[in-house]
Amino acid sequence: MWSARRSWLAAAVLVLALAWPAAPGLPRERGESLRGQFLVAESKLTGPNFGESVVLMIRHDRNGAIGLIVNKPMGEMPLDLLRRGQGLPGGDRNKRMRVHFGGPVEPGVTHVLHDADFAADGTLVVGPRVHMSKLAAVLAALAEGRGPKRYLITIGYAGWGPGQLEGELARQDWRVVPADSGLLFSPDDTDKWRRALDRFRIDL
Predict the structure, then answer these.
(1) Which domains does the chain have, with CATH numbers?
(2) Nearest to 113, CA basis, from 55, 195, 190, 41
(3) The whole model's pTM is what?
């Protein structure tokens, strides 16, 4: 199903040489902020971007919302290319790293979600057990044997303007589910959407 996403991968390769842009500032928790929660697409949401998507919310405030889709792998990229694209010395040319489609906005922007066992300059706390760091910092740490045990690299992100996500929630396009690091970092992407929906039913 996701072979079509490989075209996104080719586009992303062209822009990975650019510096990883600063992640948007995270708001303080207020009211009904969904930061650190999963948005799980309802069956009526279709299309290549959000159909059967599981989105980890990174930001949600009065200015809008930002999230990363975590269950749509694009393919694998050579480690050497990823490192050079971040201004690091090249790595093992035979090693490849899995990359996920994070959303349709800015398809060259990279983010790395990872366990709370790792932190670097600029690391953002997304949830109790999930952090987000710059790709360059994670790649450098992995090369030194001190990187995170579990991580997920995404390209692009999902974005909503002020009030847009609230409207989609009111239409019941999405279900809000407590985030789970085991589900987030599971290698079985094909089962994440169903497992997330099952969590919603249990929480009811």
Answers:
(1) 2-19+31-203 (3.40.1740.10)
(2) 55
(3) 0.82
